[in-house]
Design brief:
Length: 630
Amino acid sequence: MKKKLFNGILLGTAAMLCAGGFAACKGADGKDGVNGTNGADGKDGKSAYEIWLEQGNTGSEEDFLDWLKGITPGEENKLFFKTLEIKDNSADLTVSNATKEFSFKDEIEVSGSSKYIVSYDQYGVYQFATKVVPLEAGDNQFYIFETLGGEIVKTYTINIRRRPMYTVYFQTGSSSAVQSQRVEEGFTATAPESAPERLGYTFAGWNFDFTQKITQNTQIAANWTANTNTAYKVEYYLQDLESDYNYSLYETENLTGTTDTTANAEIKSFAHFTHTENPYYGYSRESGNIAPDGSLVLRVYYTRDSYTVTFDGNGGVYPYYGNETQKTYTVKYGGKVTAPEFTRTGYTQNGWDQPLPETISENITLSAARKINQYTLTLVLGGGQENKTITQDYGSAIEVETPEREGYDFNGWRESDNSWASVVTIPETMPAKNITVYANWNAIFYLSESGDTITGLTDYGKNATKLIIPEKIDGVKIVDIDSAAFTNYNGGAYNEKDNLKYIGSKANPYLFLVEASKNLESFEIDSGCKYIGDQAFSECSNLTSIEIPNGITSIGGYAFYQCSNLTRIEIPNGVISIGNVAFSGCSSLTSITIPDSVTSIGRYAFSGCSGLTSIEIPNSVTSIGNFAFV
């Protein structure tokens, strides 16, 4: 049975065009012959074959059938393969890897009315209209369907192998890489031009026959011969003096041997050291493989020998761990030992009966000697004063003078410089230790932030029986005293001169004018006076004249208040400030000159000066209080 292709699908044709042959395909009935369904009455009907013959054609019914199929009768219909050798309707072909497609159009010639179809599958579903097929690396199978008049008359199976490419790897066993090769199936690999290199070895060829054809991915390994002169070294380490866990290189031996064989270090002897196989945190390696790159390092370790050093207190005791009378140390060779002190109250060890070696290399015993100690008493005076120290033998008598400090009264000693610290008493004899005591002071004055101006009296200062103004307090020179600094002074001793009361310093007992007798008519202020205090001449109504010395720098508040008979006053150049109500109520004053040194005039300073007809205020004045001239 022949097969026929429709849209690429093979179908069988089960019957001829006419069941009784082409000659019988006519109607018996002219009326019904039109339809060809009842030929019994078609007397004039003709068969298709008869009509074909009447048209001038010749041939058998088979020829007529071929004619219907488009086949020229009598011609040879056949496929011819140019290069493929067809056996049993199949052929095998091998092509190079570079061949990526195959053209059956160039391979097959047709004769007569023959035609052919190229397909991937044996059913003709996947056809190649161009007759050119792609080739994958490896085996490719195609089907050629020979057709005649639309029917498949023969099927060919064509196997085309596109040679695959294989990779040839070269394993050198070293860092010397050899480029791999891509070789087409059936061809041979090429031996590398340059021999690889490998530390510690000599190249001895490849383990492969390069005449052998490549049929798969292939790995080729290098053959090597181990060198006999590969370097390695042995290092000898001695334990450090300072640490039990650290070792330092002492000696190195450079040697040679056969690559990748075992080398063993020689165990040597070193004076005062003992060989050890497993030092703490050490890297002991006394045997090992001779590395091809010469990096093998064998390491041999030695611990440092130890010795005993015994110190005999010779009557003294070591004041730790039970007051030992003897102290023994274990010291590594070459190490040092610090001699202990065997204590005796008030005495110090005074060397030993023999020199202590600088470094220890044997067992040794030493006995102690002693001498009496000296200790220091430090007196911290404070206020910028230099500390005083007393250094003398243990047990000797101590004598300390009462300290002085300007602006303060001494109030005993304390154990620290804090005001809340405990009060201490200086011992009569030098104790067996250094001690420090701090002078405790009662401050007399309040000072300005800069420390150069006395602004008032402390509670202690208010009740002082004698008040002395120092030139300096805590190293800062006193340059001014506020006008009300001594207002609350509670009756301490004053310096009196010419019915005037002063407070002064050692160098100048008349520094600060406190108070004048009310019945004085005139008097002279001491030339050493710098400050006229508050209310110093207040209500001295009999006072008609007064000379203020050039040294005065400030005139306090109410200093000349209600001096109603004071007709003239000269304020010297150098006065900086005039206090509140300083000249208030001086109704007999007719004129006054304020010098260029004055910078401030207080409130009501000249109020009630009804006789004052003129006043000259210099540019130096920067502040004038309220109602200063009312």
